[in-house]
Amino acid sequence: MGGSAASTHRRIYAVVARVPRGRVATYGQVAALAGLPRHARLVGYALHSLPEGSDLPWQRIINSRGEVSLRAMPGWDGYQRHLLEEEGVRFDAAGRVNLKRFLWEPEEAPPKGRRKATVAPRARRLAVGREVVAIAEILRPLGTAKRAAGSKAYLKSDLNFYGLDNSTLRRAAKAWLREHRDLDREDLVRVVAALWRKPVFELRAFAVELLVARQQLLEARDLDLLEDLLRRSRTWAFVDWIAPHVVGPLCLRRPAEVCRRLDRWAKDRDFWLRRAALLTLLVPLRQGAGDWQRFARHADAMLDEREFFIRKAIGWMLREVGKKRPKLVVTFLAPRLDRVSGLTLREAVKYLPVVDRKRLTRR
Questions:
Q1: Please, what sign has the CA dihedral across residues 244, 249, 254, 255?
Q2: Model's pTM, two decimal places?
């Protein structure tokens, strides 16, 4: 970067650093305060150039319509909204912030001592960028090229692979958590988001392991982040862990908020979100409890789908329910045999008593 560009970025960053928690500023506003009127685009470029793990509150900068600007990386705009909502900024149904209420009104100059007051608490936060680099350095030598090539081909993924097996990765995650016993919710979310930005399967899998192990830290307001992760997963290898083992426990703690989200996911155009709506309910249903009515309603609406991963998920869920409550499965399937796919039916009846399997034989 040239000297003039570096100087411009420093001026922009100095303004952004002044935007307080719970307030937002527009790109044009920041440009004007940095002495760059009518150059709002330069603010966007400067924030895009921030080094990973920076403590600058970039999320507080939005466009003049009160909206989070769309990003080239899918889901990142959702993460920015998540961070703002975490700070108390509210969005309306159209996804806009009321600028009359939340727009920052700066003083003429930052008061003396302001820097110490704002920087000191952030100094105690985890240095996310360094942690991601350290995690990558731990994981990379634990894999093999042969396993990396095999996993990439098996999952048909565009991600890069280190080639770790699941047990090795899980041990590494547990070791990292032992070294970070005081990890709080904010740092958990920051580390997960930073790991997920890397196009490496094992780094994303490491993030999922952290979420599973510390799911009790999550709150209903973290659903936006979890939805972003599910949308960007593009593989059962992530969705099938995030949905039942991260969103699922949150559903038990905050059923009203999560169930509203599941009802929306069940109608989403993204079949991975629809699969997640089903699998989120898996663990309690497998244990003989859970929200059977919600699952049955969603499954019935998806029975006519031709998507393999939806058909498989419905069959899998019915199979697990059938281990403890076979009558529920029979009652669900019997009047729907003309709509149930062969794949779904084969999975669903796998552990049913023989007499029940005969009742569900196609005529």
A1: positive
A2: 0.66
